[in-house]
Design goal:
The chain has four domains: 94 residues, Beta Barrel (conserved putative lor/sdh protein from methanococcus maripaludis s2 fold), CATH 2.40.420; 83 residues, Efflux pump adaptor protein, beta barrel domain (Elongation Factor Tu (Ef-tu), domain 3, Beta Barrel), CATH 2.40.30.170; 52 residues, Beta Barrel (OB fold (Dihydrolipoamide Acetyltransferase, E2P)), CATH 2.40.50.100; 123 residues. A six-stranded mixed sheet has the order 1-22-18-17-21-2, with no helix packed on it. Strands 4-11-14-13-12-15 form a six-stranded antiparallel barrel. It is built from four helices and 22 strands.
Length: 418
């Protein structure tokens, strides 16, 4: 006879076993979920910046500051040291070339000038004495020459007469020989006198040339001394405006010491400081742009100073078209210095995300706008406003560009509004 078997319920032990298995599976699933790279974080959209990728014109440039300077500046240095005795103009005055600015005194220099003038006067006096002596000596020699000429003529007359008389046997041989010897003596005396007179003339000429050369040197020295004394009056070398003059009456200024400067006010240049990171990319001809009184002006680099100081180097820029009205020396201009030509590119607005990603990845917003997920990207050039997108994004994509500092290793952001 068959017996009805009563079906037993789950025992407490079995229930605990099943519950343990379910808990273990849940733990494994949770561990996998939170370590599978799909970690998520809820983010309030009002606290982040979402930007759109656009196709547009891109130009690489850097913002720099420049100081307006005169086109030409001439520095005033003390050509001679001395004490400031008088100021003819004040700082900021407009000057014309040659206009006196200030007067220095230097007693040593003035005394040297007086001594030099005395020496030149003494040399002139001595030259006059030597010239008079030479003239008297030459006159004496010319008188002697006249006597020699007269004696020679007389000796020649007697010799010719006695020669004729001797031939006619009117006089004896002894008297003829005496006249002949006297004539030969006077001929030799004449030649000697001519030689002496020539030597005297050459000596006088040489002495005169030496005296003139010596006088010329002393006069040049005197003119130099006069110029040095004249330099005690500092004059404007060009037309312009006197600036930076730090001189007071009674001060002592050393030779070569800076007294001030003169600015030529018919043009301006801009002295710009640039980070040394860009030194290999900066050259003459690069163009920048600045805004003055709401109007844009273009400038070009004219000179590059390659010396680096405190991590920066300098360039001089000049306005290429018109010069802004009313700019002044010392005024600071903010300039956008272009490092490349304008090109068409994908533009990613700049933001704080770059500090955490280095430009290697970004959170891209999904089409439904409720989620942003991590994608790899590649960026190229940059300027203060945009990065150039090389890979990973397309026009119309939206990305989170604010800081990722609080996101840790999150892979997705759940975008919610309050």
């Amino acid at each position: 006879m068959d017996r009805v078997i009563v079906r037993k319920g789950w025992s407490k032990k079995r229930i605990m076993l099943v519950a343990g298995i379910v808990a273990l599976v849940a733990l494994i699933f949770a561990s996998w979920y939170f370590t599978s790279g799909k970690s998520k974080l809820n983010v309030n959209t009002d606290r982040i910046t979402i930007s759109e990728i656009k196709q547009g014109t891109f130009q690489e440039f850097i913002p720099v500051n420049g100081v307006v300077l005169p086109q030409t500046t001439i520095y005033l240095d003390a050509l001679e040291g001395g004490r400031v005795e008088e100021k003819y103009v004040e700082d900021g005055s407009s000057l014309t070339k040659g206009q006196p600015i200030l007067r220095l005194s230097n007693t040593d220099l003035e005394l040297s000038l007086a001594n030099q003038e005395t020496q030149v006067f003494n040399v002139l006096t001595q030259m006059n004495i030597s010239r008079n002596n030479a003239t008297q000596n030459t006159t004496g020699k010319l008188n002697q020459m006249a006597e020699v000429d007269n004696a020679l003529a007389e000796a020649q007359r007697v010799y010719n007469l006695n020669k004729k008389l001797y031939a006619e046997k009117v006089i004896g041989k002894q008297e003829f020989l005496q006249a002949e010897n006297n004539y030969n003596y006077q001929v030799r005396r004449k030649k000697l006198s001519d030689d002496i007179l020539k030597q005297d003339g050459a000596s006088v000429k040489l002495m005169g040339d030496q005296d003139r050369q010596s006088l010329a040197r002393m006069q040049n020295t005197l003119e130099l001394m006069r110029k040095k004394v004249g330099d005690l009056i500092v004059r404007a070398p060009i037309d312009g405006q006197l600036t930076s003059m730090d001189v007071e009456i009674g001060q002592s200024k050393n030779k070569g010491e800076r007294l001030g400067q003169i600015d030529v006010t018919d043009g301006f240049k801009v002295r710009v400081d640039i980070d040394e990171h860009y030194i290999s990319r900066i050259f003459n001809g690069l163009i920048g742009e600045c805004s003055v009184a709401g109007k844009n002006y273009k400038l070009g680099i004219k000179k590059v100073f390659t010396q680096v100081t405190n991590g920066r180097f300098q360039v001089d820029m000049e306005f290429t078209d018109s010069i802004p009205q009313g700019i002044r020396r010392g005024q600071t201009l903010q300039i956008r210095l272009a490092l490349s030509d304008e090109t068409t590119a994908l533009l990613l607005p700049k933001g704080g995300f770059y500090q955490q990603t280095g430009g290697n990845w970004i959170f891209k917003v999904a089409e439904n706008g409720n989620l942003a997920y991590k994608i790899d990207i590649q960026l190229g050039r940059q300027n203060p406003d945009y990065y150039e997108v090389m890979q990973g994004l397309k026009p119309g994509d939206k990305v989170v560009t604010s800081s990722y500092e609080n996101y840790g290793n999150m892979q997705e952001l759940i975008l919610k509004k309050e």
